[in-house]
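Regression test case RT-17, inverse folding.

Input:
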């Protein structure tokens, strides 16, 4: 009898413990920018567990953890809709590249690449991380799985498209955001629009989205824009232009015309949007300078020199066959080799391919930071009401990996004043969440997950550069992910509460 009474007593204790609310945190003495675009206001925010439970004029509760915001600004955590940090999380689970600029959620599976969702979930079970992660399913990943890596330089057959569609459906059922493509790259360049539309229709079946590194960002930009508009129309789903840019010298200054075409498409019922990073140079491989994939054609190389990039300001950031070239401009390398710039482009690609053949599994062999945009266009594209902010960043390369979001806040909000602070935050938070199709993030309101950033608008600024790509940003005071403090005083707290985020 006494054991039954003891058991009943223990059950009552357990039930009471379960009924007690977990300890709350109150962030007070702040200016609140909630992510909607509304004006900053004085308020306090209460967190319980991983969610916000109250916002407004709040008094501390007994035993509550108090955080003094010291008059700084509290915003939702930033959402990087185009990130390549996923691969580095095995060795850098603290995700400082993201957190130092206020990013609390990264979106992977970009440019048609990525990982299977089961693999991502398995990794999160075996190794926790400091940021949230969501993912698209890449078309190139599907092509490689079905067609084989050596069969990608052709169109897929109807049977292969059917297999790819079946694989995509399984990923959509597991929470994929939708379909991504990298149509300018080798793995997908030869795929027909009909293949993409078939896959996009499957994403649409599950209310997913389509995001694309479009087929051309320079010579055939207009045609590439028409293609993504057509995909949205035929597949009946929202479409997003990844890292939108104008990369042809002949078209510099024509951002208004590009945006006018996108607005026209929206009026026609196509939900087309864009993301953009705040730099006038990109990071990719030398091969993207050859839209026809004719890497030995001197005429094409000369066209690239004259029309698609500036060799005097474009830097070879990584080159395994000859590390001495790292950090030098293409013009400088050509002088070292006693060649024309056009011939050097051809030679560098050929030597990189020979190196790859001799060193299978060597990873990334060559990358270039290509100067092929102007700031005037970048600013107009950033300011478009349907553009959200992204980084397109990965550790060990372009400074955008560590500085995109703080660069917007410092250079383009405080200095250039192209948009207000509230609008910039909206582009980094709620608008970004809407563009990728996730719910309960990107806004500070009761019921939303407590991904938060405390920042100083007067000092926030990127510090990363080509010379120091991993330099940490200024003005990001504290960062919370799912209610837990993960970053302060430019350091990780060693807490890793990041979660996998499925499509809503």
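Golden output:
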């Amino acid at each position: 009898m006494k054991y039954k009474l003891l058991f009943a007593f223990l059950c009552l204790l357990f039930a009471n413990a379960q009924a007690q609310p977990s300890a709350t945190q109150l962030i007070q003495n702040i200016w609140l920018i909630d992510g909607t675009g509304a004006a900053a206001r004085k308020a306090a925010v209460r967190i319980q567990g991983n969610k916000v439970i109250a916002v407004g004029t709040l008094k501390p509760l007994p035993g509550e953890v108090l955080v003094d915001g010291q008059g700084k600004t509290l915003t939702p955590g930033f959402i990087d809709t185009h990130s390549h940090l996923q691969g580095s999380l095995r060795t850098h689970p603290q995700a400082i590249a993201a957190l130092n600029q206020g990013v609390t959620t990264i979106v992977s599976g970009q440019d048609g690449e990525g990982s299977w969702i089961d693999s991502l979930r398995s990794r999160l079970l075996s190794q926790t991380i400091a940021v949230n992660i969501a993912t698209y399913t890449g078309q190139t990943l599907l092509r490689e799985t079905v067609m084989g890596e050596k069969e990608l330089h052709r169109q897929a057959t109807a049977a292969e498209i059917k297999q790819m569609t079946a694989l995509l459906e399984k990923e959509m059922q597991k929470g994929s955001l939708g379909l991504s493509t990298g149509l300018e790259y080798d793995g997908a360049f030869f795929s027909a629009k009909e293949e993409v539309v078939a896959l996009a229709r499957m994403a649409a079946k599950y209310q997913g989205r389509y995001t694309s590194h479009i087929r051309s960002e320079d010579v055939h930009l207009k045609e590439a824009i028409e293609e993504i508009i057509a995909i949205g129309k035929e597949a009946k789903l929202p479409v997003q232009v990844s890292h939108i840019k104008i990369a042809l010298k002949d078209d510099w200054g024509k951002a208004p015309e590009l945006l006018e075409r996108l607005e026209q498409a929206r009026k026609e019922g196509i939900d087309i949007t864009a993301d953009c990073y705040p730099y006038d140079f990109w990071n990719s491989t030398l091969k993207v300078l050859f839209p026809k994939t004719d890497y030995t054609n001197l005429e094409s190389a000369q066209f690239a020199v004259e029309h698609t990039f500036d060799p005097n300001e474009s830097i070879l950031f990584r080159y395994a066959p000859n590390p001495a070239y790292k950090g030098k401009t293409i013009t400088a390398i050509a002088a070292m080799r006693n060649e024309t710039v056009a011939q050097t482009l051809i030679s560098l690609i050929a030597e990189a391919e020979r190196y790859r053949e001799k060193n299978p599994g060597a990873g990334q062999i060559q990358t270039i930071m290509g100067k092929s945009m102007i700031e005037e266009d970048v600013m107009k594209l950033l300011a478009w009401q349907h553009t959200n902010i992204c980084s397109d960043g990965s550790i060990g390369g372009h400074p955008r990996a560590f500085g995109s979001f703080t660069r917007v806040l410092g250079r383009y909000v405080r200095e250039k004043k192209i948009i207000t602070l509230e609008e910039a935050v909206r582009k980094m938070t709620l608008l970004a969440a809407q563009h990728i199709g996730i719910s309960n993030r990107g806004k500070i309101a009761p019921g939303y997950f407590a991904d938060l950033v405390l920042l100083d608008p007067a000092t926030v600024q990127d510090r990363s550069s080509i010379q120091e790509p991993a330099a940490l940003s200024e003005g990001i005071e504290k960062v919370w992910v799912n209610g837990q403090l993960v970053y302060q005083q430019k350091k990780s707290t060693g807490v890793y509460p990041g979660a996998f985020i499925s499509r809503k």
